[in-house]
Design a protein that fits this description.
Number of helices: 3
Oligomer: single chain
Order of helices and strands: EEEEEHHH
Number of domains: 2
Shape: elongated
Distance between the termini: 47 Å
Radius of gyration: 25 Å
Mean pLDDT: 80
Structural class: alpha+beta
Strand order of the largest sheet: 3-4-5
Strand content: 25-35%
Length: 116
């Protein structure tokens, strides 16, 4: 992602306050393709969860520029270790900002019997 700055000064000639300069600052963000690094990308609709999709004209890759990532395995282990210290699921949810349902799913996967 490249960032550029542009500043525009507008002096209205017929305004009684023509001595005051109005400064408008705009920020230009250029996104790059995650596959090839090309800035030649265009919007391409939305996916099922509502995130904006993009299409690279160079390599043909389609997808979301900033995909939502889940919890890392280290974060999961830390949250589960805190749960095993015996606070409530709601307490863990408040502390780590994780849903009770997500925590319950992790516990089911962790305690599920493995087949040999």
């Amino acid at each position: 992602m490249c960032r550029g700055w542009a500043a525009f000064i507008a002096l209205p000639p017929h305004s009684p306050r023509h001595n005051l300069a109005k400064v408008l600052i705009t920020e230009t963000i250029t996104y790059l393709c995650r596959q090839c690094g090309s800035p030649n990308i265009v919007k391409n609709g939305h996916n099922a969860s509502g995130s904006q999709q993009f299409w690279c004209r160079e390599c043909g890759k389609r997808g979301v520029l900033k995909p939502r990532r889940g919890y890392t395995p280290e974060q999961r282990e830390q949250i589960l270790a805190a749960y095993y210290e015996r606070p409530s699921m709601r307490g863990i949810g408040r502390i780590f900002r994780v849903s009770r349902h997500t925590l319950a799913d992790w516990l089911k996967k962790k305690t599920a019997p493995t087949r040999p």
